[in-house]
């Protein structure tokens, strides 16, 4: 079944609120997927010339969507006490 139900009479075509929500979610997911694809592809193009091993290449591509922690992130009251490097806890 597609995103929309279809009536036989084109004059009575109606889209329900549930269908609009589903359409919106589908569109937003497509946008997010496209943005992630572009980030990963750009990282691949940069990494192919700057890495010495496949593991290094893979790590760069896998981390393409990550952003550095900024000073304002660190100073933010809600995130100030957050453990930024969970691997360091162990």
From TrEMBL:
<dbReference type="InterPro" id="IPR042422">
    <property type="entry name" value="CC103"/>
</dbReference>
<dbReference type="GO" id="GO:0036159">
    <property type="term" value="P:inner dynein arm assembly"/>
</dbReference>
<feature type="domain" description="Dynein attachment factor N-terminal">
    <location>
        <begin position="22"/>
        <end position="85"/>
    </location>
</feature>
<dbReference type="GO" id="GO:0036157">
    <property type="term" value="C:outer dynein arm"/>
</dbReference>
<protein>
    <recommendedName>
        <fullName>Dynein attachment factor N-terminal domain-containing protein</fullName>
    </recommendedName>
</protein>
<dbReference type="GO" id="GO:0003351">
    <property type="term" value="P:epithelial cilium movement involved in extracellular fluid movement"/>
</dbReference>
<dbReference type="Pfam" id="PF15867">
    <property type="entry name" value="Dynein_attach_N"/>
</dbReference>
<dbReference type="InterPro" id="IPR031733">
    <property type="entry name" value="Dynein_attach_N"/>
</dbReference>
<dbReference type="GO" id="GO:0005576">
    <property type="term" value="C:extracellular region"/>
</dbReference>
<dbReference type="GO" id="GO:0007368">
    <property type="term" value="P:determination of left/right symmetry"/>
</dbReference>
């Amino acid at each position: 079944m597609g995103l929309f139900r279809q009536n036989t009479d084109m004059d009575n075509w109606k889209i329900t609120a549930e269908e609009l929500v589903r359409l919106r979610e589908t569109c937003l997911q497509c946008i997010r997927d496209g943005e992630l694809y572009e980030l990963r592809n750009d990282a691949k193009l940069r990494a192919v010339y700057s890495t010495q091993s496949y593991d290094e290449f893979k790590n760069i591509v896998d981390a393409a969507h990550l952003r550095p922690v900024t000073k304002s992130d660190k100073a933010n009251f809600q995130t100030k006490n957050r453990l930024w490097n969970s691997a360091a806890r162990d």
